[in-house]
Each structure stands twice: as C-alpha cells, then as structure tokens.
Amino acid sequence: MVFRNPWFRHILALSILLSIVLSLLLPYRDIPLAIDSSIFAAVGLHLNHGSVLYRDAWDHKPPLVFFLNALALRVGGETHTAIRDLQTLFGCLNLLAFYFLTWTLFRSISTSFCCSILFLFAFYHPMIYGGGNFTEEYGAFFVLLGVLGIARWVLLRKRRSRLPLFFAGCGFGAAALTKEPFVFSFVPWFVYTLLFSRGGWIESLKNSITLLSGCFFVGLFPLFYFMKHHAFMSWVEVIQYGVQYTQRFSDETILENQSEGLFRVSELIFSNSTLLVLLFVLGVASLSRSGYLRRTRYIQLFALYWVIFDFFATSLSGMFFLHYYLQMVAPILLVSAGGVYFLIRWAAREPLNVRWAVGSVFLFCALIDFTIPGMLAVNPPLPVNRARDPVLDFLHENQREGDTLWASNGY
Hints:
Blueprint: H1 6-25, H2 35-48, H3 64-76, H4 80-106, H5 109-123, H6 126-129, H7 135-155, H8 163-176, H9 183-195, H10 200-228, H11 232-249, H12 254-268, H13 274-286, H14 290-295, H15 299-315, H16 329-347, H17 352-369, H18 390-397
Helix pairs in contact: 1-4, 1-5, 2-3, 3-4, 4-5, 4-7, 5-16, 7-8, 7-9, 8-10, 9-10, 9-15, 10-11, 12-15, 13-16, 15-16
C-alpha cells in the first residue's frame, strides 16, 4: 500500500511540518522589523548600494548576517517583506536540517516528525524568537548542518569518504561567521571526531584536519571580500571590539552569569512546554543505556555536551537578551529526541492498555502546552504606536529622490 511506502510517509510528514512553519512565520510578514533586525537590514541595504562592510557601513556582528540580508534585499526588493521571506526560508531550512538529522540517527519517521513539531514550536515561540532576523536563527541552521554532516560520516558503514566531515566543517564555520558564540558549538563535535575515528591516531588526525578545513574554507569568502576592498583591518577591529563589548557587560562572575543563564533557559525554553521537560529528562535518562549509546554511535551523549557548551556560550557575556537562547533550542531538542525514540520503541512492545495509559499522560502534557501560555502562543508581538519624532519629521521633509529610510518598530 502507498501508506507503507517510506517516501510517501516522508513527503506527508514534511508537507505537514512545512505548513506549520508557514503558519508560524507568515504572520510576521506584515510587521516592521525590530531594532537589531533593522540594523542588519540597513547595513545590507548599504552593501547593495556599494558600501563596504565595516568600513562604510558598521555594526559589531560577524559578516554573514549582513550578507544574507543584502542578498534578500537584492532578490526580494528593498522592503522589510524581503527580510521576512528570508526568515521563512531559513525556517524551512532549519526544519529540514533537524528532521533529517533525527531521521539519520533513529531511522524513524515517527520520531523525526514528533521531534520536529516540538522543535518548531520551541524555536519560534514569540517569547524567545522576538520577531526574527537575529543572528541565532541563521547560525542554528548552519550548526545543524554541521552536526548532520558528523552523523552522516559516523554512520557510514565503511567511512571511506571524508566529504561529510568537510561539509560539517563548512556548517560550523558559517555558524561562527554568523555569531561568535557558535564556536562553542563546534568544540564537542571536534572532540567527537578525534575520539571516534577508526584506524588509529593517523586517521583521527586526518579526519580532524578535514573538519577544520571545511571551517577555514568558508572563512576564505569574507577574507577575500575584505582583502579586495582593503577593509581587512576593519574586520579585525570589529572582532576586537566584540571581545571588548562582551567584557564591558560581564561585571558578574562566571558562576553568577551561569546561574542567571540557568534561569533564562528554564524561563524561555522549558517553562513553555511540560512535554518538552518530560522528553528531555527521558532523553538524558536514556543515555544510561549502553545499547542506545551504541545504536546512536554516542552522538546523543555528545548532544548533551553540546547543550552544556552552548549554555556556557550564551551565558558567558553577562548579557541575557532573549533571542540569545535560540542557540540552545536545537541541542536541547536533539537530546529530547532520544526520549521520543525511547517512548515509541517501548510502546511498540507493550500491551494496548499500557500504551493508552502512558499515551494519555503525554497527551495531557501536550494539552497543557496548548493552553496559557502554551507552545502555541504564536501571535507575534505587535509594535507599539508612538508619537512622531522631530528627527523623523526632519528626515521626511528633507528626503531626496532615491532615499530609503529604515526605522525599527522598537519591540
């Protein structure tokens, strides 16, 4: 029957998931950009008009977010809807990367489908998403590509090809060029490559060099750009400024920052979903089963290390902007995927009445998530109306033909 065909089931699952992505992100299309988002778009606009990044148009974020915004404005026109379309595109890409990562690990469409739904509602919850076009939503996709490359490499039967490792390095490199804390996401997977290479230390060295080569390969593109426009030192100064910017706001000790970060993660991710809490705990508990670890080639164990490193990265600076914690959604949901997989495998062996009892508990938790505030609090925050500013009036009165004014809505 057609329903038993794996391709049909993949297409059906992805069709439903993509429709959820559109329902979550399309409402943002008619809403103006927020403050940081407007800065990224404005710099992208200047790049399209011939300005050089960091020399003529300046912000302290890494270069990739500006290049992405510039590309969106060039393709979709110089309107905020072009940026919103970029967000929707990356929403679909984030979904596909996470779906195929979980499917590569567990070979279970049901597990991938359930986990992907939870991933979408956790990642795009308005409390943490904050309107979008932030560096974290783009960096999350590139990191997922990196982890997917690692998973593909380690699960190959003969592991003769290092190409997945190279592409994994490209993903991690692109993430770091989107936001610096994603460098911490790379650390556990680099260690994983060193430890799980077959053939002794020589193969381990070759594999780690391949992974690093992918990272540096991606870095060549902005390097050539800045060298071509004689702005390399401007890029170096931005990197130095980023370090100083972090140090300026880190008045508390590292331990105090981590304590505040723990509260933020609980508030922004776990407090929105009782179901996610249960599945994450079950996923962590599943790591005690040696058979499960061997089945996933210990990737799930390193996913937990990924959670820890990303938690440290997001809390290191002492600044706790809500969208920072988008970086932690993917690793938390990957660990939780182990809980989903365990439940599905366990339920298949139990009598029907036991399945109904356990299913009712998780259904009850899901229903709680649908209530206040719930995972489905998807209505995006609306901008607040404010009185006109004399500066804006002046700009409007003195604008010239061809001028474009970008203004944030302030939320």
